Amino acid sequence: MNQKLNARTITNKELFYGHKACGGCGEALAVRLAMKVLGERTFASLPAGCMSAVSFIYPNMAFTSNAIITPFASTGAVAAGVAAGLKALGIEDTHSVGFAGDGGTADIGLQALSGAIDRNDDIIYFCNDNEAYMNTGIQKSGLTPYGTRTTTSPAGENLPGSITMKKNMFEIVAAHGIAYAATASIGYLEDFMKKVQKAKDIKGTSYIHVFAPCPTGWGHESNIAVSLAKQAVDCGLWYLAEYENGEFTLNKNPKEFSSVEDYLKVQGRFKHLEDRDIEIIKNHRDTKWKKMRRDWVR
Amino acid sequence: MGKKLFISGNDAVAEGVRLAKPHVISAYPITPQTIAVERLSEMVEDGSLRAEYMHVESEHSALACAMGVSSVGARAFTATSSQGLLYMAECLPYASGARMPIVMMNANRALATPWNIYGDQMDSMFLINSGWIQVYVEDAQEALDMMIQAYKIAEHEEVMTPMMVNLDGFVLTHTYELVEIPEQNKVDEFLPPINMTKQKMDVDNPKSLCISAGNDFNMEFKIKQEMDMKNSVTVIEGVDKEFGDKFGRYYNGMLEEYRCEDAQVILITTGSVTGTSRIVVDALREEGKKVGLLKLRYLRPFPAEGISDTVKNAKVVGVIDKNISFGFEGTIFTNVNSALITLEKTPKTINFIGGLGGRDITKKNIDEMFESLLKEASGEKQERIQYMNVRCMG
């Protein structure tokens, strides 16, 4: 497919619909669009998480192409097995794809993902990052950022919510020497679709880490999920980048960041933050961007 | 006649797997299973086995990967032991509930702690409720033969259930025996390529697998699974008969009785201890003692009817367990007693727990077991649960 992917050219055919996700779910949008780009010869592996919970409720199946729920830790391993089985059977022109959440990727599924990348299995792995264990009721994950109130990182007199920063999954994956890795956001959908298209054409393991707001878990209006995702990139708390042929590239390098406060204040999970917490968040952002701007801009 | 090789149980497993032609092998090394997977990797390297060898990073992924393979209708093999089996434990009911015909070798080995690499059955007993068919083999030849039979049973459309082939760690995995290697063309006739017609993801007929079913449907799935597992007995017996007709080796399906006809006392065994027990039975028969032996091959499905039929005229039945369900007794003993309760006149039963952590069960020990069974039969009351060959009792 050489045609430029955008809202006009993307297929009207739905491969993921009728699911029971919340209104405004960023993750469901990411899966729906990824499936449109990948097409119906896609085999999707989903571990425990919102997307599997809302899509496989017997007898109502939300994927019209092939899909399987995997054990929580096993997205990488099951997707690898699917790819190996298809290859062994001589079934060509297919895509074995994993859709895991942030916990399913950065915590419990990290080992199996690492194994798949090490073997360079021909799979595309999506980390749909909504920054906490949403399916089980908003608990802290390894990708929950500093200062987030979750049900297991409460904010109170002694703690500002989560006190860890956010595992650097993109660079962890890149450090394996993966064929292709990218970060993306549902706030920049054309960029996301372009990256899915790239991963689709790559032989070997690809990883796409897509930032996807969760109205229920983040405590924001369901009609602002996309604009909030865009805002996260614009204020520098998320970034769009690629790793390919051993090189990092920063895809979007804003001259000035938009307001971090504006991004945080519309979300219930950050309502409690004090100025000093916001300073910590900004400092962390600036350190990261200094390095990215130094090393990833060519 | 196939050629004969002097090989270990692990080698025999690898030879059997090669003949069964799986598409993908995903395995993680653990003693005493390692030699089986080493041989398989060599076979893949030298081209004598045309399969993908997946170097997974854990046992959990070994079985998860096999599930991926099976989900698209390809033939998968994995092998493990002990801690490895427990590490992948979560995936076992997952695979059986999804009705994936995966075959796995398990080298029966003790569980930590104390840390121990030698053979007992604590590992597979832990997973007896996992929904997998469990077979226990007596020697290297049976190990090889069961690799071939296992795929035929597991992939049978009325069974569609994964199968665990258990070998006693070291005693079988690392002991060398003369093993006949069946000819490939005959194996191919016996075991055609896998042909999953349903229950697989397919480009032309897409499916969602490993779905969720709430309290409105869950029980129907589980009861169907249970019915199919129970009905697999017919398939197991049919496959064994067909195998015997083709290769000249019959294993008597679910269980094998030895000199039980007029036996007053019968000892129930699984795995390699059966061979030792046979010798003791022969010696005692020479002395005119009416003793018999019943080898359980399958523990799931459990051959309850076969057991009660075989022992119904005996006075006392002994059960060897190389495992303990802590706080109660040996697991096989519990199962056997449950089977016998259906008889109008139930024989007395005695549990012999031994062989833990690889401790030998010698001919002398088995002799002692029969002695105890015979005493009980003659009215001299015996301990119901006896710990064999242990120094710290009381």
Descriptive keywords:
heterodimer, A: 298 residues, alpha/beta, Rossmann fold, 8-stranded mixed β-sheet, two-stranded antiparallel sheet, 11 helices, 10 strands, B: 394 residues, 2 domains, 7-stranded mixed β-sheet, 6-stranded mixed β-sheet, 39% helix, globular
What do you see in this structure?
- The complex is a heterodimer of chains A (298) and B (394).
- Chain A has helices spanning 26-38, 50-55, 75-88, 102-107, 110-119, 169-174, 189-201, 215-218, 225-234, 260-265, 275-295, and strands spanning 42-46, 56-57, 60-61, 66-69, 95-101, 123-129, 180-185, 206-211, 241-244, 247-250.
- Chain A has one domain (26-295): Rossmann fold, CATH 3.40.50.
- Chain A has 298 residues and is of the alpha/beta class.
- The two termini of chain A are 27 Å apart.
- The longest helix of chain A has 21 residues, at 275-295.
- Chain B is α/β, with parallel strands linked by helices and 394 residues long.
- Chain B folds into two domains: 4-247, Thiamin diphosphate (ThDP)-binding fold, Pyr/PP domains (Rossmann fold); 255-387, Rossmann fold (3-Layer(aba) Sandwich).
- Helices cover 39% and strands 19% of the residues of chain B.
- Chain B has helices at 9-20, 34-46, 59-71, 82-87, 91-97, 122-126, 140-154, 184-190, 218-247, 273-286, 304-311, 331-340, 363-377, and strands at residues 4-8, 24-27, 52-55, 76-81, 103-108, 133-136, 163-168, 176-180, 208-209, 255-258, 265-269, 291-296, 298-300, 316-321, 348-353, 385-387.
- Chain B has a seven-stranded mixed β-sheet, sandwiched between helices. Chain B has a six-stranded mixed β-sheet with strand order 10-12-11-14-15-16, with helices on both faces. In chain B, strands 1-8 form a two-stranded antiparallel ribbon.
- The model of chain B has no long low-confidence stretch (mean pLDDT 97).
- Chains A and B meet through helix 2, strand 2, strand 4, helix 3 and helix 5 of A and strand 3, helix 3 and strand 9 of B.
- Strand 4 (66-69) of chain A pairs parallel with strand 9 of chain B.
